[in-house]
From TrEMBL:
InterPro entries: TM_pro_TauE-like, TSUP/Inactive_protease-like. Its main location: membrane. Residues 290-309 are annotated as: Disordered. The keyword Mitochondrion does not apply. The chain crosses the membrane at residues 40-60, 72-92, 98-115, 136-155, 204-225, 263-281. It is found in: Cell membrane; Membrane. Keywords: Cell membrane, Membrane, Transmembrane, Transmembrane helix. It comes from the Bacteria. This is Probable membrane transporter protein. It is a multi-pass membrane protein. Belongs to the 4-toluene sulfonate uptake permease (TSUP) (TC 2.A.102) family. One of its GO terms (cellular component) is plasma membrane.
Length: 309
């Protein structure tokens, strides 16, 4: 019972972050499941099954608050579902001893990307209103869906920064659209896992705990997305992902690092993480002063009629 309560709390916290930042539900939840010894394929399957429910509630909540661009949802979500099915099938065929370090490497890379992206760079706003094209969203969705299924998360860490970096869509709509389209990705990955594994290794009580926690947090996150500073939250979440998966890799058969080495690496990462969060906080406060103290995202400009989608 204690483990189920912990999983529900993790699901709630992960969805608060995911719904307000557009990423990290999968990588956070999968990282926890791997840390307690869950089979990598089963961990990813468990998280994706839970995400069917959480993404449905999250998408409805974002739609309610006007955070969804439906053309973007379809253009990225359908290729994402194809990529997720392929990624889940690939992961299910890997040997467990190989899959665990591989998944941790993927998650670690995503953590580094999230930390770097939100610590070093702000959000571009000079191209708001320009349409996002299929030739950009299609390949992005295919790749992000594959990474999401093989890494137990990655749809948000790949998709959200890529669209934010384009500067073509209001940040809150980037987050809402990514969260909503993730329903298609989660359903496709779950189907592939169930076809390949059956229910082997999937604890449906854990699925329900993660789902309930996430469902409670989804409406709150959809409201918070208008107010929360993404730069600070991105740095904090990226650091957590890096620390947890570095621990998994250092303790794996691939590395087998001695205790002294592991503790030294952990200490260095904690210092780096603290510095990143402090830098992001200062940068956010400076940006807030420049905009007169407002933490809201900029208003989206109308799309030019002359440029096709």
């Amino acid at each position: 019972m204690r483990k189920l309560i912990l999983l529900a709390i993790v699901g709630l916290g992960a969805q608060l972050v995911d719904g307000s930042l557009g990423m990290a539900y999968g990588v956070t939840s999968t990282t926890l499941l791997l840390a307690i010894g869950t089979n990598p394929a089963a961990a990813s399957a468990t998280v994706h099954l839970a995400e069917i429910g959480t993404t449905l509630v999250s998408g409805a909540s974002h739609w309610r608050f006007g955070n969804v661009d439906w053309p973007v949802v379809l253009k990225i979500g359908l290729p994402g579902a194809v990529g997720a099915f392929a990624g889940a099938t690939f992961l299910a065929g890997l040997d467990t001893s190989v899959a665990a370090p591989v998944m941790s490497l993927i998650l670690l890379a995503l953590g580094v990307y999230v930390l770097t992206r939100f610590t070093v760079r702000g959000l571009r706003t000079d191209r708001l209103g320009h349409p996002l094209r299929k030739r950009f969203l299609g390949p992005l969705g295919l790749f992000a869906g594959f990474v999401d299924a093989t890494g137990g998360g990655g749809w948000g860490p790949v998709g959200t920064p890529a669209i934010l970096a384009s500067g073509r869509l209001e940040p809150r709509k980037v987050i809402g659209s990514i969260d909503t389209s993730e329903f298609l990705v989660s359903a496709s990955a779950s189907l592939a896992f169930l076809l390949a594994l059956g229910s082997q290794g999937v604890n449906f009580a854990w699925v329900l705990a993660l789902l309930l926690g996430g469902a409670v947090a989804a409406p709150i996150a959809a409201w918070l997305v208008r107010h929360i500073p993404p730069r600070v939250l991105g740095s904090a979440v990226g650091g957590i992902i890096i620390l947890t998966n570095t621990r998994t890799l250092l303790r794996s058969d691939w590395v087998g690092a001695p205790d002294q080495t592991r503790y030294a690496v952990y200490a260095a990462l904690f210092v780096l993480w603290g510095a990143a969060v402090a830098y992001s906080t200062r940068a956010h406060l400076a940006e807030r002063q420049l905009t007169g103290g407002s933490t809201r995202t900029p208003v989206e400009q109308p799309e030019p009629a002359s440029e096709p989608a």
